[in-house]
Amino acid sequence: MKEIIKDWVIQTVKSNSIPDEIIAFNFGMYETEDGYCIYLIGSKHYDKDDDDWACDEDFVPTNNFLIIPFNDKKDDWDVFLNKIVDIISSLITTCPELSPLSSRYVTVGFDDGNLIRIKGSRCDIEF
Prior knowledge:
By secondary structure, the chain is α+β, with helices and mostly antiparallel strands. The chain is globular and about 40 Å long. Helix content is 28%, strand content 25%. It has one domain (2-124).
């Protein structure tokens, strides 16, 4: 699953010009009949106290949806969420092709659920 997600994220980032004013990305997810769907959006806004910022879809890349089919044993949504958080966190820190994401906020979460922030902007540093 990690390689499939890696290929999709890298292809999505490389094939889309990300505007400078996009400060946050969300990897949203929802369940389908056959598996889980992951999508990526970017926003000009971010609010750590209000997850509704992710509804401001100011950047919607092409090739924006990835379906991960259920295996023989369906993972519970929270198990799947934790796997995706781990995968995206790892990719952002290890793949140079994803540098456009590394200097912005990045969250992961199911639609209608809480977002998990996995990457914060350099602006987060408090003095």
